[in-house]
């Protein structure tokens, strides 16, 4: 079984307990582990795979809390880093008008230092780039540039999820698009929401948008469509793979569960690159990954709702 290296941010989400107030009025918050690449590492490990997290947290109690969450989910954190800078935090509340109010306090995640030890370990394995903060500068962005170069030279299978966050990029969308395009062209698999692929390609028709992404050099695209399932696109074929019916209560983390489950399966076929030649197997894998995404929506919070192997494969 191949290892899947998930590189990016791990942070504290402080979510207002009583929704309907903007942050100026919110009084109490719950502390939750957040960060898409960390969620993906947990999704993989919870299924029984080898998920490794590469990222930085502060050398403070929040950093300890976050690393313990990953450890409890059997994620390998041996290459995670502790920084003197405080752990990154996001404060979130839904205001009276339903708009998200958001304050982002960026700390340790941007302090990630490139680690040359990882280069050899990447050989033939899988690397997932999925940081919402990965293109916001600092050490993390530098590490992204160097690790993707290493991943190419080590023949690793490269997965990319742009994780566009409106709150972080308002007014700077063009910069986000430019940086995403660079990664798309180097990836074997890209996962987008339909809004993300429309934003990045400038094309509203999703199938045409997929063709633009293929032209950039990415051979496999998954566009997640919530309850509608996932559009799978390769150079020759496109299929919308249906999801299962569930009663969702919180969709946070569904996309991370989906890509985690897909990568877990790709890690189990020997050479991950073989998936590029087997469309039917890819569709079977996406059918199962849809189930992982769907199950995640039936519980509150991302990491606590990620399904284990039995829930996804034996039901
Ligand atoms: P995120 O907001 O975490 O970045 P995303 O927008 O990429 O996620 P979604 O489309 O919400 O991800 O969900 C990922 C996958 O989970 C979908 O492709 C689908 O297969 C499954 N899924 C999500 N919501 C539902 C639902 N309500 N019913 C059934 N399946 C769902």
TrEMBL record:
Residue ranges of domain Carbohydrate kinase PfkB in the record: 1-308
Pfam families in the cross-refs: PfkB (PF00294)
Superkingdom assignment: Bacteria
InterPro entries, sorted: Carboh/pur_kinase_PfkB_CS, PfkB_Carbo_kinase, PfkB_dom, Ribokinase-like
Keywords: Kinase, Transferase
Keyword Kinase: yes
Record has Kinase as a keyword: yes
GO molecular function: kinase activity
Record family assignment: Belongs to the carbohydrate kinase PfkB family.
Name by which UniProt lists this protein: Carbohydrate kinase
Species per Swiss-Prot/TrEMBL record: Zobellia barbeyronii
């Amino acid at each position: 079984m191949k290892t899947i290296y998930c590189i990016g941010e791990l942070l504290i989400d402080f979510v207002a307990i009583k929704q309907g107030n903007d942050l100026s009025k919110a009084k109490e918050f719950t502390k939750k582990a957040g960060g898409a690449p960390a969620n993906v590492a947990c999704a993989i490990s919870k299924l029984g795979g080898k998920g490794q997290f590469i990222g930085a947290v502060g050398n403070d109690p929040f950093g300890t809390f976050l690393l313990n969450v990953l450890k409890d989910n059997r994620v390998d954190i041996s290459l995670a880093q502790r920084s003197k800078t405080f752990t990154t935090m996001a404060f979130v509340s839904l205001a009276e008008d339903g708009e998200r109010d958001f304050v982002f306090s960026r700390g340790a995640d941007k302090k990630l230092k490139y680690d040359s030890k990882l280069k050899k370990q990447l050989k033939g394995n899988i690397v997932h780039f999925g940081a919402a903060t990965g293109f916001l500068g600092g050490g993390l962005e530098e590490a992204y540039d160097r690790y993707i170069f290493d991943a190419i030279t080590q023949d690793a299978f490269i997965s990319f999820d742009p994780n566009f966050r409106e709150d972080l990029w308002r007014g700077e969308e063009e910069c986000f698009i430019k940086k995403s395009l660079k990664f798309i062209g180097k990836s074997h698999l890209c996962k987008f929401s339909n809004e993300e692929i429309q934003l990045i390609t400038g094309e509203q028709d999703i199938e045409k948008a997929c063709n633009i992404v293929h032209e950039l050099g990415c051979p496999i695209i998954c566009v997640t469509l919530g309850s509608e399932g996932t559009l799978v696109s390769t150079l020759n074929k496109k299929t919308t793979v249906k999801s299962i019916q569930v009663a969702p209560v919180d969709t946070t983390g569904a996309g991370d569960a989906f890509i985690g489950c897909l990568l877990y399966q790709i890690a189990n076929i020997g050479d991950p690159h073989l998936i590029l030649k087997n469309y039917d197997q890819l569709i079977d894998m996406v059918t199962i990954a849809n189930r992982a995404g769907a199950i995640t929506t039936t519980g509150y919070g991302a990491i606590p709702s990620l399904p284990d192997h039995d829930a996804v494969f034996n039901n």
